[in-house]
Amino acid sequence: MSGKEIKFVNDAFETNWIAPVGPHIDLFEKELSNIHHNRHVAALQSGTSAIHLALNLLGVNKDDIVLCQSFTFVGSVNPVRYLGAVPNFVDSEVETWNMCPNYLEKAIIENLKLGKKPKAIIVVNLYGMPAKMSDIIKLSEKYDIPVIEDAAQSFGAMYEGKKSCNLSTIGCTSFFPAKPLGCYGDGGAIFTNDDFLAEKIRMIVNHGEKIKYHHEIIGCNSRLDSIQAEILNIKLKYLDEYNANRNI
User: Fold this and answer.
1) Which spans in the chain are helix H?
2) Which of 103, 81, 92 is nearest to 125 (CA)?
């Protein structure tokens, strides 16, 4: 914490916006969208919630195969098991330490031979370093398997002219205090440029509502609260500075 956050936190109290709705969250989501050039952003309780939601959006169900990174924190894999799906681990390559595109294609082919087309690919950008996303996206398009990008450790990083979290079908990040952009507690966000997925995101995180008290699908309550949004609003302005310090 820099000390600059307290004014914005007090504003949330003074305006009585402390719930997981309101102008502070709307502003934070708008700023995230503008900075990362994603059309749609939803602020959530955690990065794990974001991955869980992403898998739900892609229709991952019991016994589905999800291709995951072998070198990662368990939080990026646990949501696969929440849904009863099966994580299929792919090893890393030596340049970025992230998912190897060659091993990824081998894993896809092996599963196809068994008659099991993987439902999704979760790529984790470790230690601020994006994976070889252009190669992975080509495989995603070739085999028609969507990619979830876990940018919890690479938030703010650039890859081929694009911001991390805007490199795949769905981007996820965490605002845990140890991450490049951290709040006072925990938080996360999910990013997409797909209008259909964005509509589903809004419904799921609001208890399955499209219209107030009209629950069309099974939803949840995984929204970020206004206090955390205010802290993140001010810290977002210094994200490049934080990342520059990490690179020293």
Assistant:
1) 5-14, 23-36, 47-57, 78-82, 101-113, 133-143, 195-205, 226-236, 239-247
2) 92
Q: Which two tokens mark 135? A: 């190669």
> In whole angstroms, what is the distance from residue 65 CA to residue 82 CA?
13
**pLDDT surpasses 70 at 138:** yes
Task: Please say whether the beta carbons of 56 and 33 come within 8 A.
Answer: no
**Cβ contact 152:174 at 8 Å:** yes
Confirm if 66 and 80 have CB atoms less than 8 A apart: yes
**Residue 137 near residue 168, CB atoms below 8 Å:** yes
- What is the C-alpha separation between 203 and 207, in angstroms, rounded? 7
121 Cβ neighbours under 8 A, 6+ residues apart: 66, 67, 99, 104, 136, 140, 145, 146, 147, 148
CB 172 within 8 A of CB 122: no
C-alpha to C-alpha distance for 174 and 153, rounded to whole angstroms:
8
Contacts of residue 51, Cβ cutoff 8 Å, sequence gap at least 6: 75, 76, 79, 122, 148, 150, 172
Predicted structure pTM score: 0.89
* Whole-number average pLDDT of the chain: 90
| Selection from 108, 124, 127 nearest residue 65 by Cα | 108
pLDDT tens track for 204-219: 988 888 888 888 888 8
**53: helix, coil or strand?**
helix
